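re: ur question from earlier - yeah i can do the single chain one, its not a big deal. heres the input i used so u can compare w yours
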Amino acid sequence: MIGVLALPVQPVAQRLRLHVERSWDGLDDLDVVLFRLKGFSFAISKHDGNPVGISHVWLTQPQEQADKALDTLLEVVGIGENAVVFRGDAHEDPAGRTATAQDSGSPDEVTDVVLPTSLWGRVRRAIGRAQ
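and the output i got, formated as tokens:
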């Protein structure tokens, strides 16, 4: 994942003249559109259980220039930067360190470690709906 947009999948697909596919990925029903732009292979998806009006942007092939890919998508589709509520991979720990229950004998022994926030926790914080 390279970003989250404050847009549903359908308007983005319409601007690219693409058909939104309805599918299932083992987690939930979802809307998804797959396409290539200027050498980047994209997928934009929205699971039924995800917040309304939010879609995820994915690269379907490994790519070192994720920011450039997202900028390319915004430029070609004509979407402003204000539609981007999250940039980057929400599954990566920004601090570079994570702890699990197996890392330590007790919670009191874990020090100077930042625990990762869930994907949805990061998205909620990015769109201003943190709890």
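DSSP finds three helices and six strands in the chain. not sure if urs matches, ping me
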